[in-house]
Each structure stands twice: as C-alpha cells, then as structure tokens.
Amino acid sequence: MRTIARLLLLILTLGPLTGCYDRIDLEDASLSLVAGVDITEDHRMLNYTSIPVFSKTESKKSQELKVVTNTLRQGRGKLDAFTVGSFNGRKIKIIALSKRFVQEVPDWFRYMDIYFRDGRNPITPRVIVFDGPLDQLYYYHSPNQPILPLMLMGMINSSSNRAESVATTLQELHRQMNEEGQTPFMTQMSVKQDAMIDGTSLLDHKGKYVDMLSMPETTLLRVLQKNAGQSVGFSLRLPPGLTGSPASVSDWISIATERVKVKIHSAYAGGRFKFSVHVHVSASVVEKLSSLDLDDHQQEAELACAKELRDKFEALIAKLQQKKVDPVGFGIYARAHQYKQFKQVKENWGEAFGQADVQVRVSVSFADEGSVK
Q: Whole-angstrom Cα distance, residue 77 to residue 82?
C-alpha cells in the first residue's frame, strides 16, 4: 500500500508539469525569421515573411511571401497556405515596418498586440523602419549577401556596435511607446543600389514617423543617451587659424574615444525647462591630416575638437527641438527633478521640449597621440 501511495503521489506531482504537447518538429515547420508590415494604396495591410529553406537540392535558400490581411494573426493563417510545413512565427529575429505604414496608419502600434498578448511569441526581435515598399527589401537578392535574415542581423549588429545606428527590440519599443519622457526611435534602412543602413527613424509620442537622423547624428544621439559603448570615432576639422593652412584646405583629425562621461542637469525657470549638458571626452588620436605639431599645440587642438563637437551636439539638439521629439530622454530627467512642472506637460512632452533651453559644454582631452609623430 505504501508503494502504491508513493506512486499516486508521484503521478499527482508530475501531472501539472508542462509537457511537449505543442511541440513542432523542425522538418514539419516553416520558421519565419523576418516579419514585415506594409500597406497598399487603399490602406489595406500587407503581411510579409521570409522563411529559410533547408534543402540541399534547392538553389534558393529562402522563401519570401506576402498576403493582404486585416491583422497579423489572420496573416499567419493565410501564409500557412503557401508554406511546405506548418507556419511558425516564434523564431522571428527582425520585424520590418515600412515608413509609409508608421507614417500614415494612426495608432499602428496596436497591430503589434499579438507579440505581447501571446506569451509564446518573442519580444526580442529587432524592429526597423524601411524607407520604401517592403517589396524592395523582401525581394532583394545579391550574390554578395547571405539570406535576408542573416544580412539584416549582420548589418544591424555591426552598425549598432559602432554606435552608428540603434538596435531597438520589440520590448524596448514597447517601453518607448509608453514612456512619457522620451519619444520612440528605430533603425532606418533602404535599398538603393544595395541594402544599407540610413540612420535612425524618429517618431512622436503617438508613434508617427517624423524625421530621420543620419549615421553621424545617431552617434551623437547614442553619446547623449549614455549608450555609445566604450569606443566611438569622430573625424573633426581643425580651424585654419590653428593650422595655418589656407581656408580652402581642410585639416582633419580623427579621434577614438576611450572614456565618455555625460552629465545632464535639469531645472525649471521662466515657464520653461532648462537643461545643461556636459560631455567630457578622453580620446586617442588615430589620424591627423595636418602639419600641426600636437606636442606644441595639444591644448589648442583639444579646444578646437571640443568646439567642433559642441557645434555638432547643438545642431542635433536644435533639430530634435524643431521636430518636437526627444529620443535622448531629457523628459526623464525633468520628471525626476521637476515632477510638478513635468506632470502638467507629460501628455505632450515633445512640445514642451521644443521650447526648452538646452546648454551644451564639451571638453576633450587627448590620452594618446599615437605611435608616430
């Protein structure tokens, strides 16, 4: 009896455990790795997918499909009719949204509901904005590039590691869409002669596409976000008054950062928010296209680089304020230190940030001038 009781107890213990009742064998599945959403001329939804083909006999290594649908869930059912195995969207690595979709569809983010509501779906795919019809991306094939999922992941990872683009995941996009003190941003790319990363898409609080930052501007954005990584490269022009060269000649110096410290302070006075930004850069000189002797004029060169960087940061912030977007997250600092005033404008922080006073200071110090004089 004791043995039977133990056996029954074991069965009752194992009963609630999750099994593999919903497993799908790899040979019976069509794994969607790149999902895409676009719209037709009459604003009907286009649902795209890219599926790798695991076959030694097939010359084509991936299958690209598109269907017209009302929701992403409905699209999965329609795509299943064109695939060899059962359609499976649980391995998605990239979600590509057309620029037109995020520009013209009000409240487009609600279509992403399926990824968050169904716990079996991933929330770590990278989300990108594609400048053009998604046909250009999904039916782009180059003999010099791998299949679409590998190409996109490689491009996003490499440019993001160099701080030339962002790497917004679906989970991070969800946070940005619900963050009152920051506006959303995503990687933007296009296909001209070849597929390429263009920079960063800027969205307002409702998710509508507003403008784009170039890759150099994105690097500055990543620095202000304190998310640029350990080493960032800048190529800066030295003024003719320092180098002694004619005004028509450009003297360049390239630096690679070793340490970057960014301090942002917020205040409120005169009916608007005020921010002071101090960026300190410790960098190594990696290139110098000038006859300037850095041993004799190091301090002057450091001040010239600091001024050039300050002008770039000021131009970036002025652009963001003009477009009334805040991808940096200045509103987060305002909420933390001036909550009473921030609470009054939190529903439209972009407008309040556009009227804010932002002062930027930059200091540069050369930690290393290189091996060659």
A: 10
282-320 tens-digit pLDDT: 999 999 888 888 888 889 999 999 999 999 999 999 999
- CA pair distance 168, 189, nearest whole angstrom: 13
Angle at 148 (CA atoms; ends 23, 53), nearest 5 degrees: 45
Calpha distance 64→73 (Å, rounded) = 18
